[in-house]
Amino acid sequence: MNFQLTEEQELIRRNAREFADKNVAPLAAEIDEQSRHPHELFAKLAAGGWLGIPLPEQYGGAGADLLTHAVVVEEISRACSATGFTLSFHAGIIGMSLYLFGTEAQKERYLVPLAQGRHMGAFSLTEPGAGTDVMAVATTAVRDGGDYVLNGTKTFVSNGPFADTYIFFCWTDRTAGKKGMSAFIVPKGTQGLQPGEPFHKMGLRGSQTSEVVLRECRVPEENMLGAPGQGLPIAMQGFEHGRVGIAAQATGILQAALDESLRYARERVQFGVPIARHQAIAWMIADMDADLAAARLLTHQAAWLKDRQLPFGKAASIAKLFATEAAMKHTVKAVQIQGGYGYIKGAKVERLMRDAKIAEIYEGTSEAQRLVISGSLLR
User: Fold this and answer.
1) CATH number for the domain including 44?
2) Active-site positions?
């Protein structure tokens, strides 16, 4: 693996940072406080071509690789982790699922507007009784002539309140075990599709999350994504791509925590010198930088493997596990470095700390990643 970005990737990284500093960072505190999805910001992201980075140009994307996508997600997340997350799963999970498993007609109708940023998507797997235990999903899709009728309740659906295109995972044949779940595309406005109100979350408040209810929701058979019974592989491949994005998001959070810690440690004077001169603070910053370097390398490695069509699921889990736990650990340290000032609502580091926690939970908890990693070693 070449540990340097290509000239083109480095140019994209610089452009992403410039865009984030100019357009994303100024809104970050506001959208956190108001717990709102910044539609006006995503219009700018769409206009700049940032929402379809890893998707083919023929379907409205930028035609770049997953590594480039990870670099962009990190830079956007450094400015606002909620925006970085939404960008990450929009292209990395929803977009890639439609690209890998969709028919040409589905790609034209659903993928193109998503890649261009004209539509936003939602990925609906988790339920009140089914989190890590995917087989506990209760939502069903029953065949009725040329249609399927969907019934069930999904929860923790990112973009749930306002998405234009939903992907739902439902049982089509409970007797078939892992081969009995199928995926369906459901457009906004479909009768029986009932998005809920946004949850009031601790962190990542600029990403709206809700429950979504399906009540006698009828969709034509051509809205099935992939083949009958292919739902679980679609979800798992989506998560593999998504975990690279979450690792990149966490790396961006960690970079922001380091930036804030360096700034404060140089400015804050105690005992007659900047606190950066005190070993206790200097060592916290050293540990932060070491883990940042490791998180970035692990993330880039996972993306690099995928871009070369090599197995990358285990590497994605390792990257997500390490980067997200490092982000949580060091955002706590960043608050500690700033003391009482870091604990005050509105301090950037307290927002980073709140945002970091969910990265250890969504798209597979840290415990789930350890199951993936250990399972690959012990099977």
Assistant:
1) 1.10.540.10
2) 363
